[in-house]
Design a protein that fits this description.
Elements (H helix, E strand, L loop, with lengths): L6 H5 L3 E5 L4 E6 L14 H19 L3 E10 L7 E10 L3 E10 L4 E11 L4
């Protein structure tokens, strides 16, 4: 299977892109009613998945394949439309990589932020 073409990416209809100059990964999460909680905003688990994917793709593109060791997500406001996650490297070690991803809504407001540590698979 081609990297990035896995079930969750297709199911969520994510648009994944990269900025090689800034070394960031952007994941656009399109709004869909079936992804929402009963209050009408995108479910926190869906938001967390998009944030996780933006960090994982970033790590693979610019460093190496890696797996999530831990991740923390803070929610600031409900996401009621399309969202865009932008992942960045905070610190790249030989074994562990520390990343962040910020999710903004269509109006540019910070909706959620995730930080995480990833184990590089090329570390042995």
């Amino acid at each position: 299977m081609e990297f990035g073409n896995f079930f969750l990416s297709r199911f969520l209809q994510l648009d994944i892109g990269y900025d090689d100059e800034a070394e960031t990964c952007t994941v656009v999460l399109p709004y869909a009613a079936h992804l929402c909680n009963p209050q009408g905003s995108v479910h926190g688990g869906v938001v967390t998945t998009a944030i996780d994917i933006s960090m994982g793709h970033l790590c693979r593109r610019y460093l190496s394949a890696a797996v999530t060791v831990e991740m923390q997500v803070r929610f600031f406001r409900p996401l009621t439309g399309d969202g865009t996650c932008t992942g960045r490297v905070i610190r790249a070690g030989r074994r562990l990589v520390h990343l962040e991803s910020r999710l903004h809504d269509a109006e540019g407001r910070l909706t959620a932020m995730g930080t995480g540590s990833w184990h590089r698979l090329d570390a042995g």
